Amino acid sequence: MVKEEGRVYIFDTTLRDGEQSPGISLNAREKLEIAEQLARLGVDVIEAGFPITSQGDFEAVKSIAERVKGPVITGLARCVDKDIDRAWEALQGAERPRIHVFISTSDIHIERKLRKTREEVLEMAVAAVKRAKGYCDDVEFSPEDATRTDFDYLVGVVKLAIESGATTINIPDTVGYATPDEFGKLIADLKTAVPELNDVILSVHCHNDLGLAVANSLSAIASGATQVECAVNGLGERAGNAALEEIVMILDTRAATIGRRTNIRTEEISRTSKLVMTLTGYAVQRNKAIVGANAFAHSSGIHTDGILKERLTYEIIDPKSIGLEQGAVILGKTSGRHAFRAHLAEMGFTLTEEELERAFDRFKVLADKKAEIADADLEAIVADEVRTATDIYSLEYIKTASSTDSTPMATVRLKKNGTLFEETTEGDGQVDAVCKAIGRLTGVDAKLVRYDVSAITGSLDAQGDVTVELEIDGRVFIGRGVSTDIIEASARAYLNAVNKALSR
Ligand code: KIV
Ligand code: ZN
Fold it and tell me: Taking all residues of the chain, what is their mean pLDDT, rounded to a whole number?
C-alpha cells in the first residue's frame, strides 16, 4: 500500500476480532454481505477472518477474497507454517491480498501462554514474516500484548520483522491496559527507536477494557500512526475494539484540529452499523456515540427549542452525514418485483435470485399488513433472508392458540431437505410452546438465556424484531427474527439460533 500524506487507513476487523465476541457466529453468506457493505463504506482493509480456525472461516475468507473488490483483504495467522499456508490458500484469489501474522511478545504471554523463550519467539516471528512474504508482498506483523512488552525487546522484534519483509507493523493494546498518554508515547518512542517505521504502515489495534480504545487510537494517530484497526459498533473480544464509526466521525468532525483524513463514505455508517447489528444479533446501547438510537435525539425543552431554531446549537454532527433521515417511505402494496429489485440494488444489497424471490414474497406479505414500507423494513427482511440462506431447517407454518382459561398450544411445521416435519406442543405461553415444538422437531435441547423484542419502525403495524440467546451444549448462540407477528418473529429467532448450533 502506498502511503498518502495525511491519510489514516481504516483496517476493519469486525469479521475477525468482532466475530470473536461471545455468541456471534456468522456464516459465510452473512460475512460476505457485511464485507460487501464494508467495501461500500470505503474501508481500506477488511480482516475477513482467521482461516485456520475452522472450515467455515476458511470458506468465508476465501469467498470474500474472491468477490469483494477495492479494499485489501487480509486473514490472520499465528507464526506457524500451517496457519500461514492456510491463510494464503484462502486469500490468494484476492485482488489485493495481505497476510497478517502475530505472536505474543510480553513476558507473561511468552512464558505462561507460549511456554517459550524470547529468542524462540523472535525466531518464529522472523520465519513467519519470511514465509508469508514468499506468498505475497503485503505482510502485516503484530507483536501481541505489545503494551505490556519490554520496550527494548519490542524494538528488536519490530526491527527484525521489517527487515524480514513486513510492510505493516501493528502495535496492539491486546488487553486494553494502556492510557492515552502512555500509548501515544509508546508510538512516538517506537518511531524514534526504529526509523524504518517511516517506510512502512504503522498501525494500532486497541481494546476497550478500560473504555479507552478510541482515545488510545487517537493518541497514537497524533504520534504518527497511519493505520487504525477498529470494528463496527466497537465489537471484539471482551469489551471490544475501538469503534470504527467513532474514530471516523472524530477525524471528520474535528478535521480542522486533527488534520488527518480517512477515505470513509460517512453516509454509509448508519446502514453498516444496522447490518452488523442485525446479522450478529448484538444491538448497541441507546446512548452509544454516533449509532445509538439516542445519538441525535433531543428531549429536554431547552435543547429541543435550540435545535428548532438552529441545529448547530446542540448538534455537532448532521445526522444526514452518517446516512440517517433518508428514504422514509419507499415501497408499498402495488410495487412490483422490478421496483423491489431496483430499490434493493440502490440500497447496496447483492442477493442471489433465490434470496431475492424469497425476500420479495416476504415483502408482499408485509405490504398486505403494513401500509408504508420503510428502508428499515426492507433491511430487516433482507437481513433475515441472508441470515437464513444456509439454514438446515426453515420455518414453513405456525399456528398458536391461547386464552385466559386454556393451556397455550402451538403447531409448528419445519422443512429440512425438502421434507416437512410437524409437531404440536403445549407451553407456558405461545412463545414457549413454539420454542418447545422447534426443540422437539430439531432434537436440539436449548436453554433460553435472553429474549428481547423491539419494533423496527415506530407505528402500531411495525415489524417486531426478536433476538434470543440460547445456551446449547455449553455454548451461546444468538438468533434473530422479524415479522409483524411477535410469535412468528420469536419462532424465526429461536430457529435461527438452533440452525447456527446445528451448522457448528
Ligand atoms: O488484540 C490483539 O492483540 C489481536 C492481534 C491478533 C492483532 O487481536
Ligand atoms: Zn484484538
Answer: 93
